[in-house]
Known about the structure:
The structure holds 2 protein chains of 2 kinds.
Chain A: H1 4-12, H2 24-37, H3 46-52, E1 61-62, H4 75-78, H5 93-97, E2 107-112, E3 118-121, H6 122-125, E4 131-138, E5 143-153, H7 154-161, E6 169-174, E7 198-202, H8 203-206, E8 212-217, E9 220-221, E10 231-233, E11 246-252, H9 259-263, E12 287-290, E13 297-298, H10 306-309
Parallel strand pairs in A: 1-4, 2-11, 5-12
Antiparallel strand pairs in A: 2-3, 4-5, 5-8, 6-7, 6-11, 8-9, 8-10, 12-13
Chain B: H1 3-29, H2 37-66, H3 70-97, H4 102-111, H5 113-130, H6 134-140, H7 142-149, H8 151-166, H9 173-200, H10 207-214
Helix pairs in contact in B: 1-2, 1-3, 2-3, 2-8, 2-9, 2-10, 3-5, 4-5, 5-8, 6-7, 8-9
Amino acid sequence: MLVKRDIERRLRGEDILPQEITDHGAYLNRRAFMAGAAVLALAPWGREASAQGKLQPLQATKSPAYQLQESLTPYKHVTSYNNFYEFGTNKEDPERLQAALKTRPWTVQVDGLCAKPKTFGIEELLKFPLEERVYRLRCVEAWSMVIPWIGFPLKDLLKRVEPTAQAKYVEFTTLLNAEMFPGQKRGLFGFSLDWPYTEGLRLDEAMHPLTLVTVGLYGQVLPNQNGAPIRVVVPWKYGFKSAKSLVRIRLTSEEPKTAWNKAAANEYGFYSNVNPEVSHPRWSQATERRIGELRRRDTLMFNGYADQVASLYAGMDLKRFY
Amino acid sequence: MSYPARVALKAAIWVGSLWPLGVLLRDFMTDDLGANPIEYITRTLGMTALVLLLTSLGMTPLRALFGWSWPIQLRRLLGLLAFFYVCLHFSVWIGLDHFFAWRRMWGDVLKRPFITVGMSALLLLIPLAATSTQGMIKRLGGARWRLLHKLAYVIGGLGVLHFLWLAKKGRTTPYYYAIVLALLLGARVWDWVRKRRSALRPGALPGRESARARS
Lengths: 322, 215
């Protein structure tokens, strides 16, 4: 017999039995203990994550400054409900087709307006001091997740190449390879995104401590469907700004052309900051559905990161620069 | 068409059209509705409604093209099943998606074109469903009833627009539906032109016969 609680649980997409979930208090205690011990330790997701995939575990220090008092979205949903048009336009496509993406060997070319351009091998990038940070992810389609990412601040990488004074923007480019990314083949009607996927940030946004070069989640290396082997995560902007499977990071003096902006400029601006007051032309952004919850919740200005990032946009008309 | 064949066809329509609802119930029972269950339920109900709507619109062209009469006997059933799914789709939007936040929903109806057209399609379906009985056909008279039920094409158009306008760029499925609708409308126009021509030619065969001869 289904009780109301059970029905609501199913509609929330909460498929995990209660006894399988670490209770939040215990989770926080463990966290405090680990932070107190100031040790490099494996993340406590071991059981859930290893039950899902056989991905390589990653060591990372927990960043106490970047934790949230919100429940994590289950690993299963984080890795099965993805917008990654390189694989296909359905949310299930990335998980279904991920095996074709080969992430070794892999290099990321960091160049453009900088003194020391350099092509980094993925092994070298994994040697940066890795942190675990829990961020909200807000999709432009009005759903959201909470994800424990592993990575390092983009500014640490950019400093290595020494941006010149002319550098004002950063452009990200995703791998172009239709063998690995079937979604990059031309569709029947010819329209899809203009591949390769490109995204961009203003240099001050890129240098912001929240902007994370990301190589893992839930204590493991990134699953392919989440943008392996290396992506960027910009938590105060809509998810599509956080480009995946990066092969190039270029410093430029002009605002980079971005994939979704080229596809529909009136719907996807260069800034695309999460903003409950600026609607998408076709739907409201005032509320969102947190994956795993039944009721909609109110969307927060800058996805809840206003304290850290609002000053970047002081004096700007955010309705115009959407 | 023989009586058993007609019964079998109707039974097939019932089973086929209730299938998606069964799948949703099964997924619910096995806790398999995915990461975003409400979105999945809404999408499945909406897609099924649109498929049934377009199928019902396909019945008249089938008669015109092949001269069969049986498709006409299925129109009402298909149309009512489409209406049933539209009602479920709408109820989920109200009760699960927005949790009875009336003001917000009303704002969306006014401001979001895809919701405006979807709501219009629902409202226009009501008089059609209400006049679907034999008694109502008699009361309205055949000609007026047929004119009223031409609205089904408008509703089909609104349904396809609803889908086109809510889909993100790069998704091709809504365009397939638009093509199917255009073909169905094209078949009606072709039939109308053909009938007019044969009416102008004295002694021409009645439309249905000439269609059969041609095919």
